[in-house]
Amino acid sequence: MASAGSEPTDELATAVGRCVLGELSLGRAAKAAGLSRWEFKEVLEGAGFTALYGPRTDEDLQREGGVARDLGE
User: Fold this and answer.
1) Cα distance between residue 14 and residue 52, in whole Å
2) How do the domains of the chain map onto residue ranges?
C-alpha cells in the first residue's frame, strides 16, 4: 500500500489525474491509489489541488439523490 509520503506510483498519478478531471470521486480515487481518503486529500493539496466534495454535475446530484432515497426504503 502506498503512503502519502512515498514515491509517486503510476496508480497514484492516474488517480490524481482522474480525480482532478472529475472522473473519480475523492474516495474512489484514494482507493485506486491505495491510500486513505485523508492521505489522498493531502497528496492533492500538496500538488496544489483542493479536494472537491459532493456532486459536481446535475447528473451526479440526481444519482446521489437516488442512492439516498434507496437507502431510506
Assistant:
1) 17
2) 10-72
pTM for this entry:
0.60
Rounded distance between C-alpha atoms, residue 56 and residue 70, angstroms? 21
Looking at residue 2, its pLDDT comes to: 46
Q: Are 9 and 2 in contact (CB under 8 A)?
A: yes
Specify the residue for cell string 439516498.
68
- Here the cell at position 50 is 483542493
- Contact predicate 33/40, CB 8 Å: yes
DSSP collapsed to 3 states, 13-63 = HHHHHHHHCCCCCHHHHHHHHCCCHHHHHHHHHHCCCCCCCCCCCHHHHHH
